[in-house]
Design a protein that fits this description.
By secondary structure, this protein is an alpha/beta fold. The protein has a domain at 2-195 and 206-273: 2-enoyl-CoA Hydratase, Chain A, domain 1, CATH 3.90.226. Helices cover 55% and strands 11% of the residues. A hairpin with a 2-residue loop joins strand 2 (57-60) and strand 3. Helix 9 packs across helix 10, helix 12 crosses helix 14 and helix 14 runs parallel beside helix 16 (387-416). The termini are far apart.
Length: 464
């Protein structure tokens, strides 16, 4: 009985919460959890590994690479250690350390993950998005294998997503599985009696009933809506774009992901590494001809040129030769520096442009209000429209709408006014108009007639 209960606890721990992970990997974890719990401990003992998974981070040529592999969990535990998982906790800690390290000129996160637990996902992604927005150094997601589900959510928080020809990106969505033990327990003579507080009739929804299934469906739908909104914010696009163009749970391969707007470009990890090393070199190193820093391969121009001729030259000739060689070496270094600078400048310009455009789209998207959707869409499509300009246009549209409304009310009031009939009706008035005037006058209080002048004789008569 204890062994069977151990199986059940392991399975319940796995299926009791929603996941953002590909089905094959979820089933693999399910299979591990269904084994004898003692098997996991035995494997860990044989391999000599601790329960906390080691997150591999390397630094080469000033470029740090964080490996994000396997299923994603919030904290390290036995299951995460055996499955070769990555924890959000370790990822956040490593990323923070590398962003603060002045010896690291760029950070690349190498993704090969099917996704994982939604618990802790958005908190970690928000932190990565903050690092990306700070723009203190290149902070790039490279999907070398899988960047799926929760893995893609994390990747979307970086400054850009770089894929390879065979990268798999997408599978956005949330899944929750329900395991029903009742038939198995009945065969083994086990009956579970559960008492639920009467104030909480929805605490244990039965997924096999229509009402219970709908309740579980609402849960995963609500979580997915939050995840999709966050991806849209990170990528600087609308939620509608994510829903329509990001696969609806399907995946894209390499260039397909770029075409769908889910990634920026296709490069191998080594190609990306070389680009970043060149950027770091161009940004941090300025060679001055004649200085100690210039004693590189290019200094061989002087030594090789003068080595065989200096012995046969006069001091004046040697001085002239060295002067000419110095000029030639300087020209070579200047030309190389100019080329490297232009290349780095173009690359940096593209990066800054992409980051700026993403921030512009995000700022305009946050202005969205009911009734202004068309205006917001037009502003996002216009690269010259700033968030401030969009807000001004919304204000102008609001004022125009109020003016139109007031004019419409005034026009309605004018049209609905009845004519004020006079005591003497026009001879040309129709019988209907005269009748209407009499009806209106009938509803008004009679006007007092002016009193006629009265002489003294009249007064006496009246007194009588």
């Amino acid at each position: 009985m204890p062994k069977r209960n151990g199986h059940r606890r392991a399975l319940q721990a796995l299926v009791s919460r929603p996941w953002a992970i590909m089905r094959d990997y979820y089933e693999t974890m399910f299979a591990i959890a269904a084994e004898d719990p003692g098997l996991l401990a035995a494997i860990a003992k044989e391999t000599g590994e601790t329960l906390e998974n080691v997150q591999h981070t390397t630094v080469r040529d000033g470029v740090a690479t964080i490996e994000i592999t396997g299923p994603l969990f919030k904290h390290a535990d036995l299951l995460s250690a055996i499955s070769g998982a990555t924890t959000y906790e370790r990822l956040a800690r490593d990323a923070n350390r590398l962003m603060e390290d002045p010896s690291v000129g760029a950070v690349v996160a190498e993704f090969d993950t099917p996704g994982g637990d939604v618990n802790g996902l958005l908190e970690t992604a928000d932190l990565l998005a903050e690092f990306a927005a700070a723009d203190t150094k290149p902070f790039i997601a490279h999907v070398g294998g899988l960047g799926a589900s929760a893995g893609y959510v994390l990747a979307s928080a970086f400054q850009e997503i770089v894929a390879t020809d065979l990268s798999i990106l997408g599978s956005l969505g949330v899944v929750k599985s329900i395991v029903d033990f009742r038939k198995r327990d009945a065969m083994e003579g086990i009956e579970e009696i559960e008492i639920i507080s009467s104030q909480s009739p929805l605490k244990r929804p039965d997924a096999k009933t229509k009402t219970g299934h709908e309740q579980h469906q609402r849960e995963v739908n609500s979580i997915a809506a939050v995840v999709i909104a966050r991806v849209a914010r990170y990528r600087g696009v609308s939620e509608e774009t994510v829903l329509a163009d990001y696969g609806q749970g399907d995946v894209f391969i390499g260039q397909q992901a770029v075409d769908a707007g889910m990634a920026e470009r296709v490069r191998t990890l080594e190609e990306l590494h070389a680009e970043l090393v060149e950027q770091i070199s161009s940004r941090n190193s300025i060679s001055v001809p004649g200085s100690a820093a210039a004693t590189t391969k290019d200094s061989s121009i002087m030594s090789d040129t003068t080595k065989d001729t200096t012995a046969a030259q006069t001091p004046e000739q040697r001085a002239a030769a060295f002067e000419a060689t110095d000029a030639e070496a300087a020209n070579v270094l200047i030309a190389k520096g100019r080329t490297a600078g232009e290349t780095a400048g173009e690359q940096k310009g593209r990066e800054v442009g992409a980051t700026t455009e993403r921030k512009r789209l995000l700022a305009i998207e946050q202005l969205t209000e009911p009734g202004y959707e068309a205006l917001i869409t037009a502003c996002k499509e216009d690269p010259l429209c700033t968030p401030e300009a969009a807000a001004l246009k919304m204000k102008q549209q609001e004022r125009a709408a109020k003016t139109d409304h007031l004019q419409s009310l005034e026009q309605d009031e004018t049209q609905n006014k009845f004519p004020n009939p006079s005591a003497g009706e026009s001879e040309s008035a129709t019988e209907e108009e005269q009748l209407a005037a009499r009806i209106l006058n009938a509803g008004r209080p009679p006007q007092p007639a002016s009193a006629p002048s009265v002489n003294s004789a009249d007064k006496e008569t009246n007194a009588l």
